[in-house]
Automatic annotation (TrEMBL):
Binding site for Mg(2+): 172, 192
Record has Nucleotide-binding as a keyword: yes
Keyword Cell wall biogenesis/degradation applies: no
Principal location listed in the UniProt entry: cytoplasm
Subunit details: Monomer.
Listed name of the protein: GTPase Obg
Length: 423
């Protein structure tokens, strides 16, 4: 079992600001407010893509931002909404909140989608603030900020590809050449005592998980060596890559090696012999390789196997092998597992939160709602200032300041701005 993890930061788009504009047409000397609303910011959406096998692409890019909404325009024209950003993830991905560790969503179904960060709402233009007593408002509303969050993507999956073969045929070296895995490699038998896993990246959007299954020996199906444990790992892969030392440098016959390993697989579980299998004739860099390769190719290709010449030590043939494995995997259905135990993530609503406090002798007002109000206010305009003051009263901010002991001419700090208090 393998858990692929990626931590990413998301920032949805900010809503566009509403416009302040007035009608200027001929014969309309006292034209009314004409400013349009800002467009909504783009959201960030997670969407399941069955073609993806790993979270490899999220290791190269960690920050994702959606498009901001466009500001409102004159003639009551709305600003254009920002484009949503769609992030494609493999099935079986669990999304967790970085701060709490709680599970936000567990993706189990194909084509499932989820809005993980919502874009900010566009601000209203001054045309929306006109009333019977306020006929020419010179202020508009600022757009809301988009949601920002840090999440963890976790993918619990089985290896797509299992490397099998006798000990010391070059499986660990091949894995290290194809992925970022760093298995222990040495020139003696049973270097690998447990499966090493690596994510192999073919190109953007194409990657797979490969497991270096520890070397099998004759009698493995009966439990010889660590046979049963090793064979269980092979059983759960989708494709077998059979690595053979075609040079015969250790005195074994390459063709005999192939049949002996397949016999062990078949004896353990007949289904294993039916799994798709690619044969890798390894150690091309050794002089005695040619003879062994010719024998393998002539015999096994007649039986329907594909035999590929490779040197894991020098890297020759490795890139071609990656693409061939990917092509084979695309023909085989994946088997993903999701997490059984989850810690529920509880969303907290912060947009309307207003904090009013007395700290070190300073009266402070802050919060997302009040920040938006401040940036929406034109303090040079009497109507806008009156709207600002009325909102403070309606939201209970003035009453709360009085309860904290504020007096005439005291300074109030609102989102970094200083205001003088008058009752």
């Amino acid at each position: 079992m393998f858990v692929d993890i990626a931590k990413i930061r998301l920032k949805a788009g900010k809503g566009g600001d509403g416009a302040v504009a007035f009608r200027r047409e001929k014969y309309e000397p006292s034209g009314g407010p004409y400013g349009g609303d800002g467009g909504d910011g783009g959201s960030i959406i997670l969407q399941v893509d069955e073609g993806l096998k790993t979270l490899m692409d999220f290791k190269y890019k960690r920050v994702y931002k959606a498009e901001n909404g466009e500001d409102g325009k004159t003639k009551k024209q709305y600003g254009k909404s920002g484009k949503d950003l769609v992030l494609r993830i493999p099935p079986g991905t669990v999304v967790k909140d970085l701060k709490t560790g709680g599970v936000i969503i567990d993706f189990k179904d194909k084509d499932e989608i989820f809005v993980i960060a919502k874009g900010g709402r566009g601000g209203k233009g001054n045309a929306k603030f006109a009333t019977s007593t306020r006929q020419a408002p010179r202020f508009s509303e600022a757009g809301e900020k988009g949601e920002e969050r840090e999440i963890i993507l976790e993918l619990k999956l089985l290896a797509d590809v299992g490397l099998v073969g006798f000990p010391n045929v070059g499986k660990s070296t091949l894995l290290s050449m194809m992925s970022a895995a760093k298995p222990k490699i040495a020139n003696y038998h049973f270097t690998t005592l447990k499966p090493n896993l690596g994510v192999v990246r073919v190109e953007e959007g194409k990657s797979f998980v490969m497991a270096d299954i520890p070397g099998l020996i004759e009698g493995a199906h009966e439990g010889a060596g660590l046979g049963h444990e090793f064979l269980r790992h092979v059983e759960r892969t989708r494709l077998i890559v059979h690595v053979i030392d075609a040079s015969g440098i250790e005195g074994r016959n390459p063709l005999d090696d192939f049949y002996k390993i397949n016999e062990e697989l078949k004896n353990y579980n007949p289904k294993l012999s039916k799994k798709p299998q690619i044969v890798v004739a390894n150690k091309k860099d050794i002089g005695t390789w040619n003879e062994g390769y010719k024998i393998l190719k002539e015999k096994l290709e007649k039986e329907g196997y594909r035999v590929l010449p490779v040197s894991a030590a020098t890297g020759e043939g490795v890139d071609k092998l990656k693409y061939i494995i990917w092509e084979e995997l695309s023909k085989i259905e994946a088997d993903y597992e999701t997490f059984d135990e989850v810690v529920e993530f509880k969303e907290t609503e912060e947009k309307e939160e207003i904090v009013v406090k007395l700290e070190e002798g300073k009266f402070i007002v802050e919060g997302a709602f009040i920040e938006k109000l401040v940036y929406s206010t034109n303090f040079d305009d009497l109507d806008s200032l009156r709207y600002f003051q009325n909102t403070l009263i309606k939201k209970g901010i003035v009453e709360k300041l009085k309860s904290l002991g504020i007096e005439e001419n005291d300074t109030v700090y609102i989102c970094g701005f200083e205001f003088e208090f008058f009752d």
